[in-house]
Amino acid sequence: MAESTRLADLVQARIDEFVSDRSLILSSISEELTPLVEISRRFLSGGKRFRALFAYWGWQSVSGEPDGFDPFSTEDDVPDLSAVVSVAAALEVFHAAALVHDDIIDNSDTRRGAPAAHRSFEALHREGGWAGDGTEFGRAAAILHGDLLLGWSDELLDEALDLLPDRVAARRTRLEFNRMRTEVTGGQYLDILEERAWPTRSEEEMRSRAETVITYKSAKYSVLAPLVIGAALGGGSDEQLAALRSFGLPLGIAYQLRDDLLGVFGDEQVTGKPSGDDLREGKRTMLIAMARERIGTGPRRILDELLGDPTLDADQIRLLQSTITASGAVDEMEALIARQVVRATTVMTDAPLTRRSRRELALLAETVTRRAS
To answer: 5-19, pLDDT tens digit by residue?
Structure first.
């Protein structure tokens, strides 16, 4: 735990330093670009840093360092952490960019208990008394903000790769990062497609289509890709990367299944987003697919009519929550999460990775799938 905390501190420091450097470029253009920096700082501070942790432990898992080794020691013979910290920072900045764009797509008002980026820019328009539509300005500005963060994540990755003497490892890390970007964008598209195209699909397809969205929008991007990127950075072998993929995919699926439960039943004071937000957004998740399979025609019709209505009130949210719970879908989801965690942790039993990293990754698996936010 102390090691994870120290890593998070180093990643935050690297992000802060990077944003400060880039703020000089923006301020040299115009002082009116200050909001881009301020909103970036807010989006890039705090958070659970799961992607950074998975990248770090992916790197550690192939390092071959003995138990008891402390990479954060001040001794002269410890490896330089600069590259892995910059890669971890790149992943966190990429995640922030994805959140900015995701909130625009979902028309979300909040993120981590604060206004979403497009709402922050919308407020600037309102407070400035500017011409035109504030909502349109907020969305346009947030799209550019997300694009800026995407570019910054790539710069951080390049900085890390420039530090590597092993150019094969650098190239492999870059390829894994590029693959992650392509897959998560494809997964995001499938997610918004599913919200609109579901009436044209057969009932039998809904669960498998939801699983495809989970896999590419979240499971690979949140867990598998950071692990493999970290291991590639450390010069991991094909066998080691394959083991991390076998661990990361089921764990990533469990991670997103937990997220889907929180999107329907989470406590707003803990998650930072309104309870039932996924219901208002019309997310066609595995939870919804399971519930629809288990309920009668009448309740299913009501669920379909209400799901995706942004004006749902508290009573309607409670009705949907009650319908989903009574169907047994929540219990099935919990059982599926447990099975996926077992699949993942079983891989760690004899994986060709350092003993220390196998232990830490098993603990991290419990943390990310039992969380309340």
So the answer is: 899 999 999 999 999
Distance in angstroms (rounded) separating the CA atoms of residues 17 and 305: 48
Distances in whole angstroms, Cα of residue 300 to Cα of each of 208, 279, 288, 292: 19, 14, 10, 6
CA distance 158 to 208: 37
Query: Is the pTM of the predicted complex or chain greater than 0.85?
Result: yes
Residue with tokens 């990077």: 18
Q: 281: which residues sit within 8 A by CB, 6+ positions away? A: 106, 107, 108, 195, 308, 310
- Per-residue pLDDT tens for 17-60? 999 999 999 999 999 999 999 999 999 998 899 999 999 999 99
Tell the residue number behind the tokens 């990755």, with chain if given: 157
**Looking at this protein, which amino acid is placed at residue 25?**
I
Class of domain 1-46+81-162: mainly alpha
> Over the range 352-368, which residues count as b (16 or more CB within 10 Å of their CB) and which as e?
ebbebbbebbbebbeeb
- Domain 168-373 in CATH 1.10.600.10: yes
* Residue ranges of the chain that CATH labels 1.10.600.10: 1-46+81-162, 168-373
Looking at this protein, which amino acid is placed at residue 235?
G
